[in-house]
Design brief:
This is Sirohydrochlorin cobaltochelatase. InterPro entries: Anaerobic_Co-chelatase, Sirohydro_Cobaltochel/CbiX. GO terms for molecular function: metal ion binding; sirohydrochlorin cobaltochelatase activity. It comes from Peptacetobacter hominis. It holds the Pfam family CbiK. There is one protein chain. With about 260 residues, the protein is of the alpha/beta class. The protein folds into two domains: about 5-115 and about 240-255, Rossmann fold (3-Layer(aba) Sandwich), CATH 3.40.50.1400; about 130-235, Rossmann fold (3-Layer(aba) Sandwich). The chain has helices at about 15-20, 20-30, 45-55, 60-70, 90-100, 115-125, 155-165, 180-190, 205-210, 220-225, 240-250; strands at about 5-10, 35-40, 75-80, 105-110, 140-145, 170, 195-200, 230, 255. A five-stranded mixed sheet has the order 2-1-3-4-9, sandwiched between helices. Helix 2 (about 20-30) crosses helix 11 (about 240-250) and helix 6 packs antiparallel against helix 11 (about 240-250). The longest helix is centred in the last third of the chain and has 12 residues, at about 240-250.
Length: about 260
Protein backbone atom coordinates (compact mmCIF):
# COMPACT_ATOMS: atom_id res chain seq x y z
CA UNK A 1 0.00 0.00 0.00
CA UNK A 2 1.45 3.36 -1.07
CA UNK A 3 0.73 6.14 1.41
CA UNK A 4 1.21 9.89 1.03
CA UNK A 5 0.85 12.92 3.27
CA UNK A 6 -0.19 16.12 1.53
CA UNK A 7 0.20 19.46 3.32
CA UNK A 8 -1.85 22.29 1.83
CA UNK A 9 -1.40 25.99 2.53
CA UNK A 10 -2.35 29.24 0.83
CA UNK A 11 1.33 29.71 0.04
CA UNK A 12 3.60 32.74 0.00
CA UNK A 13 6.04 34.32 -2.43
CA UNK A 14 8.24 35.61 0.42
CA UNK A 15 11.14 33.16 0.59
CA UNK A 16 12.42 34.00 4.09
CA UNK A 17 9.09 33.66 5.85
CA UNK A 18 8.24 30.54 3.81
CA UNK A 19 11.30 28.78 5.18
CA UNK A 20 10.50 29.74 8.76
CA UNK A 21 6.76 29.01 8.60
CA UNK A 22 5.25 26.81 5.90
CA UNK A 23 8.37 24.71 5.36
CA UNK A 24 8.93 24.35 9.10
CA UNK A 25 5.41 23.01 9.67
CA UNK A 26 5.70 20.73 6.65
CA UNK A 27 8.90 19.19 8.00
CA UNK A 28 7.30 18.43 11.38
CA UNK A 29 4.28 16.81 9.74
CA UNK A 30 6.49 14.81 7.39
CA UNK A 31 8.49 13.53 10.37
CA UNK A 32 5.28 12.51 12.18
CA UNK A 33 4.14 10.40 9.22
CA UNK A 34 6.78 7.72 9.01
CA UNK A 35 6.20 5.45 6.05
CA UNK A 36 4.36 8.15 4.09
CA UNK A 37 5.79 10.02 1.11
CA UNK A 38 5.56 13.80 1.48
CA UNK A 39 3.86 16.20 -0.95
CA UNK A 40 2.80 19.85 -0.78
CA UNK A 41 0.21 22.03 -2.50
CA UNK A 42 -0.74 25.71 -2.44
CA UNK A 43 -4.29 26.96 -2.87
CA UNK A 44 -3.25 30.32 -4.35
CA UNK A 45 -2.78 30.00 -8.10
CA UNK A 46 -1.44 33.56 -8.13
CA UNK A 47 1.41 32.57 -5.82
CA UNK A 48 1.98 29.30 -7.70
CA UNK A 49 2.33 31.21 -10.99
CA UNK A 50 4.56 33.88 -9.44
CA UNK A 51 6.95 31.31 -7.95
CA UNK A 52 7.15 29.44 -11.25
CA UNK A 53 7.80 32.58 -13.31
CA UNK A 54 10.13 34.34 -10.86
CA UNK A 55 11.99 31.49 -9.19
CA UNK A 56 11.42 28.44 -11.38
CA UNK A 57 9.70 26.70 -8.44
CA UNK A 58 6.80 24.44 -9.45
CA UNK A 59 4.14 23.72 -6.84
CA UNK A 60 0.84 21.93 -7.44
CA UNK A 61 -2.57 23.24 -6.49
CA UNK A 62 -4.71 20.71 -4.54
CA UNK A 63 -6.44 19.28 -7.63
CA UNK A 64 -3.12 18.77 -9.42
CA UNK A 65 -1.63 17.18 -6.32
CA UNK A 66 -4.48 14.69 -5.85
CA UNK A 67 -4.47 13.81 -9.56
CA UNK A 68 -0.73 13.22 -9.35
CA UNK A 69 -1.06 10.99 -6.28
CA UNK A 70 -3.77 8.94 -7.98
CA UNK A 71 -1.71 8.53 -11.15
CA UNK A 72 1.32 7.49 -9.08
CA UNK A 73 -0.69 4.67 -7.50
CA UNK A 74 -1.13 5.93 -3.94
CA UNK A 75 -4.05 4.33 -2.11
CA UNK A 76 -4.02 6.30 1.16
CA UNK A 77 -3.62 10.06 1.52
CA UNK A 78 -3.40 12.11 4.73
CA UNK A 79 -4.28 15.72 3.94
CA UNK A 80 -3.50 18.51 6.39
CA UNK A 81 -4.51 22.10 5.80
CA UNK A 82 -2.45 24.96 7.22
CA UNK A 83 -5.40 27.35 7.09
CA UNK A 84 -6.25 29.27 10.27
CA UNK A 85 -10.07 29.21 10.33
CA UNK A 86 -12.91 27.27 8.69
CA UNK A 87 -13.35 29.99 6.08
CA UNK A 88 -13.84 30.09 2.32
CA UNK A 89 -10.42 28.64 1.45
CA UNK A 90 -10.73 25.81 3.96
CA UNK A 91 -14.22 24.80 2.86
CA UNK A 92 -13.28 24.96 -0.82
CA UNK A 93 -10.29 22.72 -0.12
CA UNK A 94 -12.37 20.21 1.84
CA UNK A 95 -14.87 20.00 -1.03
CA UNK A 96 -12.06 19.46 -3.52
CA UNK A 97 -10.43 16.69 -1.48
CA UNK A 98 -13.79 15.04 -0.73
CA UNK A 99 -14.40 14.63 -4.46
CA UNK A 100 -11.54 12.10 -4.55
CA UNK A 101 -12.89 9.61 -1.98
CA UNK A 102 -13.91 7.18 -4.73
CA UNK A 103 -10.36 7.09 -6.12
CA UNK A 104 -8.49 6.22 -2.93
CA UNK A 105 -8.97 3.55 -0.30
CA UNK A 106 -8.59 6.13 2.47
CA UNK A 107 -8.32 9.92 2.74
CA UNK A 108 -7.98 11.71 6.06
CA UNK A 109 -8.48 15.46 6.35
CA UNK A 110 -7.11 17.44 9.29
CA UNK A 111 -8.72 20.48 10.90
CA UNK A 112 -7.42 24.05 10.54
CA UNK A 113 -5.81 25.82 13.50
CA UNK A 114 -9.08 27.12 14.96
CA UNK A 115 -11.86 24.54 14.87
CA UNK A 116 -13.16 23.41 18.27
CA UNK A 117 -13.05 25.00 21.71
CA UNK A 118 -9.83 23.24 22.71
CA UNK A 119 -8.16 24.55 19.54
CA UNK A 120 -8.75 28.13 20.66
CA UNK A 121 -7.40 27.39 24.13
CA UNK A 122 -4.32 25.61 22.74
CA UNK A 123 -3.68 28.41 20.25
CA UNK A 124 -3.85 31.07 22.96
CA UNK A 125 -1.43 29.06 25.11
CA UNK A 126 0.90 28.81 22.12
CA UNK A 127 0.95 32.47 21.13
CA UNK A 128 0.89 34.15 24.55
CA UNK A 129 4.49 33.15 25.14
CA UNK A 130 5.53 34.01 21.57
CA UNK A 131 6.85 37.07 19.79
CA UNK A 132 5.14 40.31 20.76
CA UNK A 133 3.57 39.02 23.95
CA UNK A 134 5.99 40.60 26.40
CA UNK A 135 3.40 41.34 29.09
CA UNK A 136 4.29 45.05 29.01
CA UNK A 137 2.36 46.43 26.04
CA UNK A 138 -1.13 45.83 24.75
CA UNK A 139 -1.06 43.49 21.75
CA UNK A 140 -2.92 44.15 18.50
CA UNK A 141 -3.23 41.04 16.33
CA UNK A 142 -3.87 41.30 12.61
CA UNK A 143 -5.92 38.42 11.22
CA UNK A 144 -6.74 38.00 7.55
CA UNK A 145 -10.51 38.09 8.00
CA UNK A 146 -13.29 36.73 5.79
CA UNK A 147 -16.78 37.44 4.49
CA UNK A 148 -17.60 33.81 5.35
CA UNK A 149 -19.83 33.09 8.37
CA UNK A 150 -16.71 31.90 10.19
CA UNK A 151 -15.67 35.56 10.66
CA UNK A 152 -16.81 35.15 14.27
CA UNK A 153 -13.62 33.16 14.90
CA UNK A 154 -11.69 36.43 15.37
CA UNK A 155 -13.76 38.00 18.17
CA UNK A 156 -13.94 34.54 19.75
CA UNK A 157 -10.13 34.40 19.72
CA UNK A 158 -9.95 37.78 21.44
CA UNK A 159 -12.38 36.57 24.08
CA UNK A 160 -10.17 33.52 24.76
CA UNK A 161 -7.08 35.75 24.96
CA UNK A 162 -8.68 38.02 27.53
CA UNK A 163 -9.98 35.03 29.47
CA UNK A 164 -6.35 33.86 29.65
CA UNK A 165 -5.28 37.22 31.07
CA UNK A 166 -3.76 38.54 27.83
CA UNK A 167 -4.29 42.24 27.06
CA UNK A 168 -4.94 41.89 23.34
CA UNK A 169 -7.23 43.08 20.56
CA UNK A 170 -7.88 41.19 17.33
CA UNK A 171 -8.61 42.98 14.06
CA UNK A 172 -8.79 41.82 10.46
CA UNK A 173 -7.74 43.05 7.03
CA UNK A 174 -10.90 41.75 5.35
CA UNK A 175 -13.97 41.41 7.54
CA UNK A 176 -14.85 42.42 11.10
CA UNK A 177 -13.56 43.84 13.33
CA UNK A 178 -11.34 46.16 11.29
CA UNK A 179 -8.58 48.49 12.49
CA UNK A 180 -11.13 51.32 13.06
CA UNK A 181 -12.92 49.26 15.71
CA UNK A 182 -9.59 48.38 17.34
CA UNK A 183 -8.46 52.02 17.42
CA UNK A 184 -11.76 53.09 18.97
CA UNK A 185 -11.36 50.62 21.83
CA UNK A 186 -7.69 51.48 22.37
CA UNK A 187 -8.52 55.19 22.66
CA UNK A 188 -11.33 54.46 25.12
CA UNK A 189 -8.65 53.00 27.41
CA UNK A 190 -6.12 55.70 26.55
CA UNK A 191 -3.57 53.09 25.37
CA UNK A 192 -0.38 54.84 24.21
CA UNK A 193 1.69 51.93 22.88
CA UNK A 194 0.91 48.57 21.30
CA UNK A 195 2.77 45.60 19.89
CA UNK A 196 1.59 44.88 16.34
CA UNK A 197 1.64 41.14 15.63
CA UNK A 198 0.33 39.18 12.63
CA UNK A 199 -2.14 36.39 13.36
CA UNK A 200 -1.36 34.67 10.08
CA UNK A 201 0.62 31.58 9.17
CA UNK A 202 3.24 33.64 7.33
CA UNK A 203 4.45 37.21 7.71
CA UNK A 204 3.87 37.95 4.03
CA UNK A 205 2.32 40.82 2.09
CA UNK A 206 -0.43 41.64 4.59
CA UNK A 207 1.94 41.72 7.54
CA UNK A 208 4.76 43.58 5.83
CA UNK A 209 2.64 46.11 3.98
CA UNK A 210 -0.93 46.32 5.35
CA UNK A 211 0.24 46.03 8.95
CA UNK A 212 3.79 47.37 9.11
CA UNK A 213 4.19 49.41 5.93
CA UNK A 214 4.84 53.14 5.73
CA UNK A 215 1.78 53.90 3.59
CA UNK A 216 -0.84 56.10 5.25
CA UNK A 217 -3.43 53.31 5.30
CA UNK A 218 -1.23 50.73 7.03
CA UNK A 219 -2.16 49.75 10.57
CA UNK A 220 1.12 51.18 11.86
CA UNK A 221 0.46 54.55 10.20
CA UNK A 222 -3.17 54.68 11.34
CA UNK A 223 -2.24 53.92 14.94
CA UNK A 224 0.66 56.38 14.92
CA UNK A 225 -1.63 59.08 13.50
CA UNK A 226 -3.96 58.47 16.45
CA UNK A 227 -1.07 59.01 18.87
CA UNK A 228 -0.46 55.32 19.58
CA UNK A 229 3.13 54.17 19.37
CA UNK A 230 3.75 50.82 17.66
CA UNK A 231 6.30 48.07 18.16
CA UNK A 232 6.37 45.81 15.08
CA UNK A 233 6.76 42.04 15.17
CA UNK A 234 6.99 40.29 11.79
CA UNK A 235 6.67 36.70 12.96
CA UNK A 236 4.21 34.36 11.26
CA UNK A 237 2.33 31.83 13.37
CA UNK A 238 4.16 29.05 11.55
CA UNK A 239 7.40 30.06 13.27
CA UNK A 240 5.96 29.13 16.65
CA UNK A 241 6.90 25.53 17.57
CA UNK A 242 3.72 25.15 19.63
CA UNK A 243 1.57 26.19 16.65
CA UNK A 244 3.51 23.73 14.49
CA UNK A 245 2.70 21.01 17.01
CA UNK A 246 -1.03 21.82 16.85
CA UNK A 247 -1.00 21.28 13.10
CA UNK A 248 0.86 17.99 13.58
CA UNK A 249 -1.71 16.89 16.16
CA UNK A 250 -4.55 17.80 13.80
CA UNK A 251 -2.95 15.76 11.03
CA UNK A 252 -2.38 12.70 13.20
CA UNK A 253 -5.91 12.81 14.67
CA UNK A 254 -7.66 13.66 11.39
CA UNK A 255 -11.01 12.13 10.49
CA UNK A 256 -11.46 9.89 7.47
CA UNK A 257 -13.48 11.44 4.66
CA UNK A 258 -16.46 9.37 3.60
Amino acid sequence: MKKAVLVVSFGTSYHDTREKTINAVEKKIEKAFEGYDFFRAYTSNMIINKLKKRDGIEIDNPIQAMDRLYEMGYTEVAVQTLHIICGIEYNKLKDQISSYTDRFEKITFGNPLLYGIEDYKNTVEAIKSGAGFDGENTVVLMGHGTEHESHSAYPALEYYLRDAGVDAYVGTVEGYPEIDQVVKRLKERNVKKVNLVPFMLVAGDHAQNDMAGDEEDSWKSILNEEGIETEIYLNGLGENPKIQDIFVKNAVEADTLQ
